[in-house]
Each structure stands twice: as C-alpha cells, then as structure tokens.
Specification:
homodimer, alpha/beta, 7-stranded parallel sheet, 11 helices, 46% helix, globular
Chain lengths: 252, 252
Amino acid sequence: MNPTETDTSLFKRLRFVLVETSRAGNVGSVARAMKTMGFSDLVLVAPRCADPLQDPEAVAFASGAIDVLSGARIVGSIAEALDGCNFAAAVSARLREFSPPVWSPRELSSHAAGQADLHAAVILGNERFGLPNGIVEGCNVLINIPANPEYSSLNLSQAAQVLAYECRLAAIGENRTQTGVGFQGEAASLAQIEGMYAHLEEALVAIGFLNADNPKKLMPRLKRLFARTQLETEEVNILRGIARHMLGQRRG
Amino acid sequence: MNPTETDTSLFKRLRFVLVETSRAGNVGSVARAMKTMGFSDLVLVAPRCADPLQDPEAVAFASGAIDVLSGARIVGSIAEALDGCNFAAAVSARLREFSPPVWSPRELSSHAAGQADLHAAVILGNERFGLPNGIVEGCNVLINIPANPEYSSLNLSQAAQVLAYECRLAAIGENRTQTGVGFQGEAASLAQIEGMYAHLEEALVAIGFLNADNPKKLMPRLKRLFARTQLETEEVNILRGIARHMLGQRRG
C-alpha cells in the first residue's frame, strides 16, 4: 500500500455522524472542528433542532466552516447515515454490557489511516442521553475518550475535535503505529454484515439453538464477537453458506 | 523518577492561562475541557468580558465544571498569571519571526509529564487576534496544533481540549496500543479453541457444507477469522453449542 495515497485519502474516507443533536450551535462547532482538521463529510440523523444548517447559532459556531455546515446531509435513520461505510465507530463515555470492543481515539485513527479501503463513520449521540444501545451494538467499535472518571462528559463538539485531531495526525503520518491486524480481503459492508446476522439468526432458530421467544443475549454476543474481527466479504459469504446449510438441513 | 508520582502530579502542575478572552462562553467551555481531562488551575489575564466567572453563558458552557470556573483567578498581567510557573507554552496557529521553538501538543505533554519539577502554563490568546508578540517571545515554546492549512483556526476551547487531552494521556502514561477493555470476559485457552474447531468441523461436515474429502480452505479461513478476535471462554462455549445443535439436527 502506498502510504501517501492512504494518507491523503483518509480525509475523504472519514464521516462524522451526529445522532439526534439537540443544539444547533453544537452542529456548527462540530463542522468547525472537522474543517480545522481537514474533514468535511458530515451527516445528521434526525436532529432535534430546527433547521440546523441555517440556524444563526450554528452558523456563528461554524465560523470559517460554513461550507462543511451547509454541505451536511440530514437523514432519518442511522442506516441511511452509514450508506457507503464499511466501519462504524460509536463514541461513548458509557461502557455497556454488550459492547463492541473498546478502542481509544488513537487506535481508531491508526486503524483507519492504515486501511485504504476503509470507509469509517464516527458516530456521536445526543448531548444529554448519548447514543441508543441499538446503534452502539451495531457498531464495530466503541470509542472511549480517556477522561477524568469524576467528570467524563466532553461537550459534543469537543469530543469531535479530539477524534478529528487524532485522525488528522494519523492521516498525515504523525502517528504511525501498526495495528498488527492482518487484513487481506475486501472489508464487508455493514449491509452485508446485517444481512448475514439475519440469516444466521434464522438458522440458529431452525436448529433449535436460539429460542425465538426467549433469545436471551445470543445475537448481541455473536455480533460483539464478529464486530471485533472486521469481517471480510468472503467471510460473510462463508457464514451465510453455513447458515444456508443449517436451514437446508432442517428442510431436507 | 517514580512514574506514578509524576503521573498523578501533572494534574497539579499544569495551568491554563487565557489572555484577553472576549467571550465568556469560551471561558466556561475551557473550564469544562480542563475538568474532563483532570485539570483545574485556570487563570484569566485581563478578560474582555464582564464578570466571566458568573456570566450565564460561561456557567452554561462550563456545565459540570462550575467548580473550575468559579475557582479561576483573574489577574491584570501575564507576569501575575505565570507566578509559580517555570515553563510557559504559548499556543498559536501563527508562526512568527522571533518565535521560541515550535512544539507539537504531544511534545509538550510528554515533556511536562516527564519532568516532575516542571510547573507549566499553557497560554491561549484572544479569539480574534491571538497572543501579542511580547507574550509569545517570552515563552519557552510555541505550541502549534497540527491543523488544516486552509483553515487552521480552532475555537479557543477546542484548542484547550486538544492540549488537555494530550496532557492527560501523557499524565496517565497512555501511549500504549492496547486499551483496557475492562469488562471483557476471560480469554479462552488454545486447548478450548482447538476443541471448538474440531467440534465445528464435524458439524460443518454433518450439515453438508464441508466436504471432508475436499475441504478446500474452509477451516483455515474460519480459523483466521476467529484468530483475529481473541475468543473468550464464553464465546467458545456458544460456538460449541451451535455445533452441538447442528449435529443434533442431523441425528434427530
């Protein structure tokens, strides 16, 4: 892999996704944080403020990043926001029982900079209640910004600034640390992975391992396991092949 | 030097100095940025806003860091602000002709964390015109946050956040690649994993997905997938449960 190519392109491969943001000013501040670090792809999922791209407070806080603010896209669901991405990173100060693996900002940035085919989304939740469990559980990793245990609540745009800063350092090669993950094949898209999970779940019910009426935590546990691996397309196909044969077995 | 001693004490050895800040909201945001990273020593030099420690916008932006905000000291000169410090770092996006040596945030943080007798001040200027040359020239170093050359103007509190973040990482000795991942389960032993592979292979033959006479690369591919995850004992048990039900299906 040509490092220069990778370096320049991370700025095009990283998306910031804000979920249900309440304050328009924070949207503007995030736009500014992104632009100062060279990023521009901003998507808002169901914002809780009216007209966040034109709001005077948003415009004021965006300052010289009006282009990033006005170029932001507003969508209704996290699935739409992740369209085109094959890696999703939830930012949260709160650790959960069925969490994807927890990475530091620096681990995220070095991973993202090192994988030229990675299209990553950094997902930040509402100012007050953060991200819903459903979104976090669907992510590949949970990003935990090291913070004061007595007060770990960074302002939304300040969390975005820290992440954008780390990603810039990695993108310009000031932060090269090897992730050491042997990654050879094409990364599976989130849609492919979701499809595989649905298929697998159906098969696990069919063989009597998963009780559809009392699923317990089986699927979240399996998702957590696979989320750690960054699945390749070929691997998703193998897992679907197994699911298909499990189902065929029952029918046959 | 005892690293633990040094680590804990950097939180007491680092001061943030804001010079001629115009917006009270930024003072509050800086207080929050500092507290989230474990710092509390804030000094304002000749602020250009009335009553910045009580201003409603300052209080709102400080959020859970009211103690840092209300504990800030207001002084009339940079000399007073630096009382008790033996190292001064001016933060500026603008390089100057007669500049002290230019350091990155990370260079500052590792220097400060490594010197137990260093009492350092990080000095940030006005939102519009930055720091006067006279102050910059009197500093030991100039801190330049790596930024987009086309738009390098971080909001004051976001610059403070980046610096506080780097200093926290250095203070807690976090230059490691591994995260804590505290709530992960017990790592499976190699014997457990090998047993699971044998069980899974048998099951895959049983459901007709794996042809024992012509296995191709199926098991090596699955092993490569799982090897990336560092499986936990509980996960190995789940995978064996799936294999058992795949076999049960055939026999039943």
